[in-house]
Each structure stands twice: as structure tokens, then as C-alpha cells.
Design a protein that fits this description.
Blueprint (H helix, E strand, L loop, with lengths): L1 H10 L3 H20 L5 H29 L7 H11 L14 E5 L4 H12 L3 E6 L7 H13 L3 E4 L5 H10 L4 E4 L13 H21 L5 E7 L23 H20 L3 E6 L2 E2 L8 H10 L3 E6 L7 E2 L2 E2 H14 L16 E6 L5 E2 H12 L4 E6 L14 H7 L7 H15 L7 H4 L2
Parallel strand pairs: 1-2, 1-4, 2-3, 4-5, 5-6, 6-11, 7-10, 8-13
Antiparallel strand pairs: 9-12
Helix pairs in contact: 2-3, 5-6, 5-11, 7-8, 8-9, 10-12, 12-14
The chain binds nicotinamide-adenine-dinucleotide and 2-acetamido-2-deoxy-beta-D-glucopyranose.
Nicotinamide-adenine-dinucleotide binds next to helix 5, strand 2, helix 8 and strand 5.
Length: 443
């Protein structure tokens, strides 16, 4: 038990706070020696300052640790819920083969919700995990969780850095696959809160891979990388073989690191790994921090939108990919993922390591995106066109998807025009716009 407690302490981001406490104590002693001749009033004041410092550092320690691992889990009822959610409804002898049992991380997220639903609908077992962080409105994440619950998918509230929770989940369920989508997303936010990227995309990834390599049987891992790994690459369309060693943002750098970290686990422990480089995914239940979403909100509220433009007045362009196409790519990746080969933390033979672009191969400029939205919403946008600041965004993305087409049968079918229509319809109904409004009549 003692060992467990020590390990836990190591994992918690509490050590800096503790160091501070010790330092504060040492400082008080030193100062005490220097000013021994001055009055007791001064010493009392010093003592008070030290106490306040100690209190504050302790407070921040309690704050951070509880923010990371506040979730409650465990118990017989909880285990029963996990098992029920993880059981495939496809019998082993059915035409599509035996059902999968998938642990989906980031299940209350945009892509995680859609993938979990799609898996459940075709009869696979799904258990989700999500820490419901406040990067964007958590009520949207809770609404997605409620949607999943209504389809029999249970989402555990917990952090992928919580190794004990992951071990418990693998003890309860022999997952065949892990679909790892939990991450700190967003390019610009990395300048505001870099630590959150390291926490979820680096430390969290390693924590998850540790649990996967220890699990018996080991699951096959499919996870979300990003088109942002292409960074300063300007050979188009972006191919898996192109350079990815020049990231333009910390977000991109953590995704690139993820590709290399997963490679290590594939190489040493025989984990089957598939990395998917998503290209700007959009659709119903999407992410409020993304441009198409915030544009829609601002246009409807009559607020101006900021449209970035690249150098020399070149419009930014993105290879927008509709969520249903991404879901098909994720499920095809799970279905074609070869087995992991390790047991007891040791490799028994080589396991597959794959990387695929999942894009639409039809880049659209941001002004075109805005005009499609204007048409569906029947409101003219107030555009505020500004030069793109050097914040990590790249001027354009364009996927070469021939590898995914060949090996996964991936074939995106939704144009931005079609996809945005579905997004706007969802947006208006979710945020309670009247069906009698002009915008609704237009859809
Ligand atoms: N949406 C896109 O355009 C896009 C593009 C490229 C890559 N991706 C990647 O795809 C994946 C899914 O993206 P999304 O758009 O659904 O984002 P999302 O933010 O909606 O979903 C991620 C979910 O993970 C959860 N999460 C974050 N850190 C966690 C942690 N430490 N422990 C447990 N849960 C945690 C969040 O609460 C969130 O619900 C991410 O890995 C993202 O980086 C997305
Ligand atoms: C796309 O990538 C494939 C390799 O996966 C390559 O053979 C093909 O030439 C590329 N297409 C273009 C247009 O660059």
C-alpha cells in the first residue's frame, strides 16, 4: 500500500507546491538569523507572510490535484454498468463477425460521441472515458453524454492520466480495441495554456499506452493525430510520406510526438497502432471553438466575425471533412487493425503500425465557408478581415487520401455545402431557434 501511495504522489502535480513550502520555511529561518536584533513585531509580520505563502501553495496543490482526479468510480454497480456497456450485441457467428469491445477516450467530445454512437448502432460494445474539462462549454459535453446514455453507452468521468482507473477498466473488461480521441485540441489555445497540451496529449497518451501494453489481451489502438503535423510542409496535397518535422504550433508538436511515442510502444511492446491525421472535422454536435461554429453563433447574434487572411491577401483554405466521413474512417481503421502481439508487457512478434490521412481532398476558402453559412442562415455576416497573426495556424490544408482509400476503403462523400446544411439544422434545433424562423425555412 505504501508503494502505491508514493507512486500516486509522484503522478500528482503537487511536488512544486511542496518544494515551495520547504523553501518558504528555509527562508524564514535565514531571515530570522539576519534580523535577530530587530523587534518581535517584525518577526511576527514575517511569520504571517510565511504562513500565507504556505497556505497559498498548499491551496494551489489541492486545487490542481482535485481538478485532475476528482472523479468517483468503482463499486459493484459501477462495474456492472461498465460490463453491460462493453458487451457487443452482435453474436460471434453473425455475418459481420464477432462484435468489438471498444474503450473510447474523449467519448463526450465531438468525434468521440459520433464514433461511439456508430459503433453501438452496429452492435459493438463501447465504454467511454472523458474528463469533461472546461476548454469549451461542458454542458455540451454533458448533453452528448446523455445522448450516448440513451443508446446504452456508459461514459466514465475520469482522466486518462489516472493509471489506476485505466487498469481497473481493463481488469473489468478485456477490450479488443481502444479508440483514443481524448486530447487538448485547438491550435491557438496552446499559447494560452501550453501545460494542458502536455497533460493530455503527451502525459495522458503515455498513461493510456502503459495501460494498453499491460492489458491481457492487449487491445489494438486507433488514435487521432492531426493534419497539423504537416506544419510548414507546402507540397500539396499532403501525403503520409511528406515531412512532419516542422510543426507550427505546440498542438502540432504534441501530435507529432504522439506519432513517435506510439511507434515506440508498437516497437517494444507489440501494440497494434493506427494513427489518423484528421483534416478539420465539422458537423452536428461540433466544437464551439472552431471557426464554422463560432461564425454561425456570431452571425445569428448579429456580431462581427474575424476572418483571417494569409500573406499577400491570399485566403486561408481548409480541407473541411464531414463528421460522418471521419466516423467511417475510424470504424474502418478499427475493423482492419491487426492484432497486438504482446503479453505481460513483452512483444511476441511485429505488430502493425499505420498512419492515414482522413480528409476530404476538396479544400474550401474561409470566405466561401462564410458565404455558405450566410445563405443557410439568411443573415449577412459582418466580416472583419485581418491579416493572420503568427499564432500557429497554417495557410491551407489539403489531404491526399489515396492510402486510406486503398487500405481502409475510405471514401468521403459529403461536400462542405451538404455538411454545413446538416450542421446549421442541428445548431438551430439544439440552441432552440424557432422552426418558424427564416433560417429554418431555408433548410
Ligand atoms: N475536430 C477536428 O477538426 C480535429 C482535427 C484534427 C485532429 N483532431 C483530434 O481528434 C480528437 C477528437 O477531437 P474533437 O474535435 O472531438 O475534440 P473534443 O475536444 O470535442 O474532444 C476531446 C474530448 O477529450 C476530453 N479530454 C481531454 N483531455 C482529457 C483527459 N486528459 N482525460 C480524459 N478526457 C480528456 C475532452 O473533455 C473532450 O470531451 C482529438 O484528439 C483531436 O486532437 C480533431
Ligand atoms: C498521393 O499519395 C500516393 C501515395 O500514397 C502517391 O502515389 C500519389 O502520387 C499522391 N498523389 C498526388 C496527387 O500527389
Amino acid at each position: 500500500m505504501r508503494v502505491v501511495a508514493e507512486e500516486e504522489e509522484d503522478m500528482l502535480p503537487s511536488t512544486p507546491g511542496k518544494v515551495k513550502i520547504e523553501r518558504a520555511g528555509a527562508m524564514t529561518r535565514q531571515l530570522h538569523r539576519c534580523f535577530a536584533s530587530t523587534g518581535t513585531m517584525f518577526l511576527w509580520a514575517l511569520f504571517l507572510v510565511a504562513m500565507t505563502a504556505t497556505y497559498l501553495s498548499f491551496h494551489s496543490f489541492v486545487d490542481t490535484s482535485s481538478r485532475y482526479f476528482a472523479a468517483s468510480w468503482g463499486g459493484l454497480h459501477w462495474e456492472r454498468q461498465i460490463r453491460a456497456s462493453a458487451s457487443p450485441r452482435r453474436p460471434p457467428g453473425s455475418a459481420e463477425g464477432a462484435g468489438l469491445s471498444v474503450l473510447v477516450t474523449g467519448a463526450a467530445g465531438f468525434v468521440g460521441t459520433h464514433c461511439s454512437l456508430a459503433l453501438r448502432k452496429r452492435g459493438d460494445g463501447v465504454v467511454g472515458i472523458d474528463n469533461f474539462n472546461k476548454y469549451y462549454d461542458p454542458s455540451l459535453k454533458k448533453a452528448r453524454r446523455a445522448l450516448l446514455a440513451s443508446h446504452g453507452v456508459f461514459v466514465v468521468e475520469g482522466d486518462i492520466n489516472d493509471g489506476r482507473l485505466l487498469t481497473k477498466l481493463f481488469d473489468v473488461v478485456p477490450f479488443t480495441h481502444v479508440l483514443h480521441l481524448a486530447a487538448q485540441a485547438g491550435v491557438r489555445y496552446a499559447m494560452e495554456n501550453p501545460a494542458s497540451y502536455v497533460h493530455s496529449n503527451i502525459a495522458g497518451l503515455v498513461s493510456l499506452l502503459e495501460a494498453c501494453k499491460e492489458a491481457d489481451p492487449q487491445p489494438a489502438v486507433v488514435w487521432a493525430s492531426s493534419s497539423s503535423v504537416y506544419g510548414l510542409n507546402n507540397a500539396v496535397p499532403f501525403s503520409e510520406a511528406h515531412r512532419t518535422d516542422r510543426p507550427a504550433s505546440l498542438y502540432a508538436a504534441t501530435k507529432k510526438a504522439g506519432e513517435e511515442i506510439t511507434h515506440t510502444y508498437n516497437h517494444i511492446y507489440g501494440l497494434s497502432v493506427t494513427g489518423l491525421r484528421f483534416f478539420t472535422v465539422y458537423g452536428p454536435w461540433g466544437r464551439p471553438d472552431m471557426a464554422y461554429f463560432s461564425f454561425t453563433r456570431n452571425i445569428l447574434q448579429g456580431k462581427p466575425i474575424t476572418v483571417y487572411r494569409g500573406r499577400d491577401h491570399v485566403d486561408l483554405a481548409r480541407d473541411f471533412t464531414y463528421i460522418d466521413d471521419i466516423v467511417r474512417g475510424c470504424l474502418a481503421s478499427l475493423d482492419t487493425a491487426g492484432r497486438s502481439t504482446g503479453t505481460g508487457g513483452r512483444k511476441r512478434g511485429p505488430a502493425p503500425y499505420r498512419i492515414f490521412n482522413l480528409g476530404n481532398t476538396a479544400p474550401v476558402t474561409v470566405p466561401t465557408l462564410v458565404s455558405i453559412l450566410e445563405r443557410y442562415l439568411r443573415v449577412n455576416a459582418k466580416r472583419n478581415v485581418v491579416e493572420m497573426p503568427g499564432n500557429g495556424d497554417v495557410p491551407f490544408t489539403h489531404a491526399n487520401i489515396s492510402l486510406a482509400r486503398e487500405q481502409l476503403g475510405y471514401k468521403p462523400t459529403t461536400s462542405l455545402e451538404m455538411g454545413l446544411k446538416k450542421f446549421v439544422r442541428w445548431y438551430l434545433s439544439y440552441y432552440g431557434y424557432n422552426r418558424g424562423t427564416q433560417a429554418f425555412n431555408n433548410l
